[in-house]
Write a structure and sequence with these properties.
With 495 residues, the protein is α/β, with parallel strands linked by helices. The protein has helices at 13-26, 45-49, 73-85, 99-107, 127-138, 156-166, 180-189, 211-218, 242-252, 269-278, 303-308, 327-336, 353-364, 376-385, 396-402, 445-452, 460-476, 482-492, and strands at residues 3-8, 29-33, 55-59, 90-94, 113-119, 144-150, 170-175, 193-195, 228-234, 257-263, 283-286, 300-301, 313-317, 320-324, 345-349, 368-372, 389-391, 405-408, 433-436, 456-458. Bound molecules: NADP nicotinamide-adenine-dinucleotide phosphate.
Length: 495
C-alpha cells in the first residue's frame, strides 16, 4: 500500500518541530528536509528526531540536485551517517553521490533503510532509458529506489506507470503540473510512497498536492489497483470543477472510480487516447478546446453528439471508445427549471461549442431564437444548421430589447478575465431572464448586472451540474446524487 509522506521544509528548528506535529496527523511518514534548515548543526539531529512519533526519512539534498544544503559534501554525508548511527528509519541518498560513499553508507546502514533517489528536473526519459536507470541504481541493492522525473507532456506519466508495473521497491512519479495524475495514481500503480505537501506554500517540489486536498478531493486513501480511472481532458483541465462533483459521488456511492485532470495539448490527444486504451482507463470528459478535435479518435459517436458536432464525454468499453454529448442535457434542464422555452424569444450570444449544444436544444424545442456572435459568419452557419435567425454584433442592443431570454455562451467574463462582460452596463436590460454559461466565477459581472436590473438569473453551475448527471451514468451505469453534485460544486467554486 502506498504511504503518504509529507516533507517538512521549515527554515528554523522551532518551525520545523511545529510542522512535524501537524504533518504526523495527516501522513503515514514524514520526510525531514534537513537541507531547508538554515545553519543546521549536526548535533541538533538527535533533538530533532526525538519529535517524530511515526516513521521518517532524513534527506539532505545538495543544491546541485535541487536541494538547499549549503555546506560541503563531507558535512552532508556526515549528517546521513549520523542518521544511520541514530537508527533513523530511512535516509534518502542521491544516485549522483560518489560511488564509494553510496557503497559505504549501504554497507553500514544497519536498521536504517536506504532510499536511493534520482531526480530529473527537466524531462521524463523513455521507458527503456528509465529501466536502464532503475537497473543501474538497483545494482547497489538499496532498500527502495526513487525515480522522479519532470512531465513536459501528459503522456510522460504513462512511462512512469509502466515502470511501476514492471519494477519493485519503487517510488516513482512525475513533477510539474502535467505530472499531477502520476502523484495521484501512485496508489494504483503501487509506488511505495506518494509525497504531498503539508499545505499550499510548503511544497518541496513542483506540482506537489497538499495532504488535505489529495484526500478530500481525490479520496486518495481508497485508491487501489482496481480503481477505474476517468479524466477530464482539456488545455487547462486543472481548473475544471467537475472533479469535485464526480469524486464526491464516487465516495458516497462506494464506487471504486477516480476522476482526475489531464492537462493536454491538441497534438498530444491521439497518444493520450492510445494510452487510455493500453492502461484500460474507463473514459472521461472533454473540455476547452478539444471537444471537436477529439472526435476523430473515437470508434463511435452517438447521434446527438454527431448532430451537435462536439463531444464532452467518452466511454471506453473494452477498447471501443464512444463519444457523447451531455452539455445539451445540462443546458436544457438548467433553462427548463426556470422557464418554458416555447412562446419565448431567445437571444444566444456566441457561436462556439457551448452555443451548438444550446441551439440543438432550442431547435428540438422549436423555439424562436436569434444568434449573435463576434464572428458573424459562425452565427450564420449555426443559425442555418439549427433553424434559428442571426444578427450582426452591432445589433446587440436592439436584439437584447427584442428578446425575453438572453443567454451568454461566450467565454467573456471567465476567469481570469472576471471583470469583462458581454453586455455593457449602459445597455443592460431590465426584467429579462439572463443565463450565463460561464461558471468560473459563478458571480460573473453579467450575473451581477442581471441581479441589479431585476432580471431572473440562471448561473453556469446549474448547467454544469445537470450535464454531469449524464456523464456519471454513462461511466458507472448508476445515477449520482444530484444534491451532492451541487453541494460539492458550490463548495469549490471560488478555487
Ligand atoms: P468556444 O467554442 O471557444 O467558443 C467561444 C465563444 O466565445 C465564441 O463564440 C467566441 O466568438 C466568443 N468569444 C470569445 N471571446 C470573445 C470576446 N472577447 N468577445 C466576444 N465574443 C467572444 O468555447 P465554448 O466551449 O463554447 O465555451 C464558452 C463558455 O461556455 C466557456 O466559458 C465555458 O466554460 C462555458 N461552458 C459552460 C458549460 C456549463 O456547463 N456551464 C458547458 C460548456 C461550456 P468568436 O466565434 O468570434 O471567436
Amino acid at each position: 500500500m502506498t504511504r503518504i509522506c509529507i516533507p517538512i521544509v521549515a527554515e528554523t528548528i522551532d518551525n520545523f518541530i511545529k510542522d512535524i506535529k501537524k504533518a504526523e496527523i495527516l501522513s503515514d511518514l514524514i520526510e525531514l528536509r534537513i537541507d531547508y534548515i538554515k545553519d543546521f548543526k549536526i548535533d541538533k539531529l538527535e533533538k530533532l528526531i526525538k519529535n517524530c512519533t511515526k516513521d521518517f526519512i532524513i534527506t539532505c539534498r545538495p543544491k546541485n540536485n535541487g536541494g538547499k544544503f549549503e555546506g560541503n559534501e563531507k558535512e552532508r554525508i556526515s549528517i546521513l551517517e549520523k542518521a544511520i548511527d541514530l537508527e533513523c528509519p530511512f535516509i534518502d541518498l542521491e544516485i549522483e553521490t560518489e560511488n564509494k560513499t553510496i557503497l559505504n553508507l549501504i554497507n553500514k546502514k544497519q536498521k536504517t533503510k536506504i532510499i536511493l533517489s534520482y531526480h530529473d528536473f527537466k524531462k521524463t526519459n523513455s521507458l527503456k532509458k528509465l529501466k536502464i536507470k532503475y537497473d543501474e541504481m538497483n545494482s547497489y541493492f538499496p532498500d527502495f529506489l526513487k525515480i522522479v522525473t519532470y512531465a513536459n507532456s501528459i503522456n510522460d506519466n504513462f512511462n512512469i506507470f509502466s515502470l511501476l508495473n514492471e519494477k519493485s521497491n519503487l517510488i516513482s512519479f512525475c513533477m510539474g503540473i502535467r505530472g499531477h495524475i502520476s502523484r495521484i495514481l501512485t496508489a494504483k500503480y503501487g509506488s511505495y510512497i506518494s509525497y504531498v505537501c503539508l499545505e499550499e506554500g510548503k511544497e518541496s517540489a513542483d506540482g506537489q498536492i497538499s495532504a488535505k486536498y489529495i484526500e478530500d478531493v481525490y479520496n486518495f486513501s481508497s485508491i487501489n489497483k482496481e480503481t477505474k480511472v476517468l479524466g477530464v481532458l482539456g488545455s487547462v483541465a486543472e481548473n475544471s470543477k467537475s472533479k469535485f462533483m464526480h469524486n464526491a459521488n464516487f465516495k458516497k456511492k462506494k464506487l471504486n472510480f477516480i476522476y482526475i485532470p489531464f492537462k493536454v495539448r491538441k497534438e498530444e490527444l491521439k497518444e493520450l487516447i492510445k494510452n487510455f486504451k493500453i492502461f484500460e482507463f474507463r473514459g472521461g470528459a472533454v473540455t476547452i478546446p478539444h471537444k471537436e478535435d477529439i472526435m476523430q479518435y473515437f470508434n463511435n459517436i452517438d447521434n446527438t453528439a454527431k448532430i451537435i458536432g462536439a463531444t464532452n464525454t467518452f466511454v471506453n468499453d473494452n477498447s471501443i471508445f464512444s463519444g457523447h454529448n451531455t452539455d445539451y442535457y445540462g443546458a436544457e434542464h438548467a433553462l427548463k427549471e426556470i422557464t418554458k422555452l416555447k412562446d419565448k424569444k431567445i437571444l444566444v450570444i456566441g457561436a462556439g461549442g457551448a452555443a451548438r449544444s444550446l441551439c440543438y436544444v432550442l431547435n428540438k424545442e422549436k423555439s424562436n431564437f436569434t444568434i449573435i456572435n463576434r464572428t458573424y459568419e459562425k452565427a450564420k452557419l449555426l443559425a442555418d444548421e439549427f433553424n434559428g435567425s442571426c444578427s450582426k454584433f452591432k445589433e446587440l442592443k436592439k436584439e437584447i430589447n427584442n428578446n425575453d431570454i438572453i443567454i451568454n455562451t461566450t467565454s467573456v467574463g471567465m476567469n481570469p478575465n472576471n471583470n469583462e462582460c458581454i453586455i455593457e452596463e449602459k445597455i443592460f436590460p431590465k426584467n429579462k431572464i439572463i443565463m450565463d454559461m460561464v461558471y468560473n466565477p459563478i458571480e460573473t459581472v453579467l450575473i451581477k448586472l442581471a441581479n441589479k436590473n431585476n432580471c431572473t438569473i440562471i448561473t453556469g453551475d446549474r448547467m454544469l451540474a445537470y450535464q454531469a448527471i449524464g456523464q456519471f451514468k454513462l461511466w458507472t451505469g448508476v445515477d449520482p446524487y444530484f444534491d451532492l453534485m451541487q453541494k460539492a460544486l458550490l463548495e469549490h467554486l471560488d478555487e
